[in-house]
Structures are given as structure tokens and as C-alpha cells.
Amino acid sequence: MVVKKLTLKNFRNYEEETFEFTEGLNILTGKNAQGKTNCAEAVFYLCTGSSLRIRHDKQLIRRGGDHARIFAEVESRYGAITLEAAIYENKRELFVNGNKLTRSVEFLGNMKSVFFSPGELRLIQDGPDERRRFLNLSISQTSRDYCTALLRFQRILDQRNNLLKMRDADMVLDTLPVWDEQFAKYAARIICKRREYLADLSALAAEAHAFLTDGAEVLSLSSEKEYKGEVEVVAEKLQRELSAGYERDMRLGFTTVGPHRDDIKISIDGADARGFCSQGQARTAALSMKLAEVAIFTRLTGESPVLILDDVMSELDLPRRKKLLARIKGLQCILTCTHAERVLYGTESNKIKIHGGKIV
């Protein structure tokens, strides 16, 4: 999968600019705060329909503009695709091949990408929300069924939590079983898909980590809580756990069982990475997980995703920079940096210099 052309209008600090990318390594270079990351963010937005940097889309609109537009021409194994997002103050419109979509889930996965930046250290060092978000974004790009189950689950969870906050205990106890059946149905689908995905991710991340560290460290990933069996078996177990936890959930006012409580256990040489690894180890572990994500997308879809590396090279030592360049050879990669000559080491690339939201 290759992004051929990207047009930004009133997006972040861009008034209007068109980027032309090649199949291999594309380097966005320039001083800090000129718009390199904004361009990379736009590509990711067209893949997922969301930004990793902000919560509200209206923040993507350039100051003084009434809306932002992102448009891309993409070449996939199935032919040419155009993707477009028009972002307004209180709404957005999404288009595939010029056709306006009625559901956001239909936009997800038409172009696939893996994004890595220094901020991805959150994946290792922060709380479980970051790791769940990683799983959700990653799996949703290749499975609309998962994305749909996730959206429905979240609505049911919100309803169940609202019910738990009510003071009429008898009414709550009478109503909870109605929500539990639907809760368990979608939660089980999410849990089983995550279990399958994490098994693949763990093996591939361990291999990538061994490559980047020359076998000096062993990375392992596992679920904090393991549910065995098919979807129906998991759903039944969840319903039993929900029933057993009524008193606790009513006392706390929220649901304490389910995939919204999941976490990934990340270990380096058998030690919990969250408490014991250095910044460098955390960075390499997160990068290994992202490279594993690339491998999974390639296997599932038959083509490589677009790899976005935002200011990554400055955070790696020389041997790991060279290792990374060797690893991504053959992929379309959009890489941002301040000095291209310091990260290329003779690698052929398409260099695009950016200054003040313009290509120079």
C-alpha cells in the first residue's frame, strides 16, 4: 500500500500544500515546529479516522479557517483509491472514491498505517488505557467486525454504568441481567479477538526486539487476564463474573469486569517493563511492537501498511538506527527528522523540506 499524493488545506499550520511520495523512504525534514509531524498526522488520520495527538477534531482546523481538508491518492493491491476527510467545527464528512460515507466505521482500514513517535513510550510506561487504545486501533484497521463490536460494547457499558449509579437497589438488580447478556455477547468477541491478535503480536515483537538488540534482551507480551475457550464459552464466564460482582459494582458505581479493564503485561528479560526498564529499553520495546504490527498487517492483508516514524531516529543510538533502516527496507515509510543527512547513512530517499507549513 502506497500513498502517492497528499493534499492538505487549512490543516494545522498548512494553508494549502500537496505532497508527492515515493514507494520507499520519504523524509520530511526541517526545523522543529514547521509542520513535519502535522503532515504525518494527516496520513494517519486518513487511515484511522482519528488523531493520536488531540481529542477534538476541530483542533485540526488552521487558525482563521472554517474547515480543514485532507485528501490522498492511494495505490493498493486492489487498485487506486482516493480518501478524503472534511473537518468542520462541529462535524466531519468522510469520503472514499468520492462517495460520502454514512458510517465512520466504513472509513477505517481503507488505507492502513503504523505510527511511531517518541510519545509511544506511553505504551510501555503509562497505564492500561494506552495499551488498550493501541490494541483497539491496531485490530480495528484489519477487522471492521471488531470495531463494530467495540462501539456497541462501549454503548452498553455506558448504560450499565449509569444504571449502577442509581439509588433504587431493587430496580438495579432487576435490570442488570438484561444488560449483562448484551454486555457479555460483545465483550466476548472483543476478548477473543484481542487474545488471537496478542498471540501473533507477542511472537513477532519478540523477534523484532531480538533483531534490534542483537539478541541481548528478550521481550514478551501477554494478557493480564486470560480467558480460554470460544466466544460462547467466554460470554458465559463473563455473565457469571458480572452476576457475582453485583454488590461490588453497585457499591463502586461502575463495571469492574470486562475488556475495558484489560491490560498487556510487557516484560523484558522476565522483569515488568513498566517498573524496571530504562528509557532506551522502553523505546526499543515500543518500536518492536510497532514493527510487529507492520508484520501482522502485511500477513493479514497481503500488502504492507504505510509506516510513519515521527522524530524517531534522534532517540535511537547509531547501531539501532542502522538496524531500523535495514528492517524497513521495502516498505513505504514517511519519516520526520530535523537533519536528514544524520539518519540516512547512504539510504536512498525522497526528501521533502518543510518550513512554516510549506514545502521549500
Task: Describe the protein's architecture and organization.
The protein is of the alpha/beta class and 360 residues long. The chain has two domains: 1-112 and 305-360, P-loop containing nucleotide triphosphate hydrolases (Rossmann fold), CATH 3.40.50.300; 127-302, RecF/RecN/SMC, N-terminal domain (Glutathione S-transferase Yfyf (Class Pi), Chain A, domain 2). The protein contains eleven helices and 15 strands. It has helices spanning 36-48, 122-125, 128-140, 144-164, 169-212, 231-244, 246-252, 273-276, 279-301, 318-327, 341-344; strands spanning 2-11, 14-20, 25-29, 67-76, 79-88, 92-96, 99-100, 113-116, 219-223, 264-268, 271-272, 306-310, 333-337, 350-355, 358-359. The strands form three sheets. The chain has a six-stranded antiparallel β-sheet with strand order 2-1-4-5-6-7, with helices on one face. It has a six-stranded mixed β-sheet with strand order 8-12-13-3-14-15, sandwiched between helices. Strands 9-10-11 form a three-stranded antiparallel β-sheet. α5 packs across α6 (231-244).
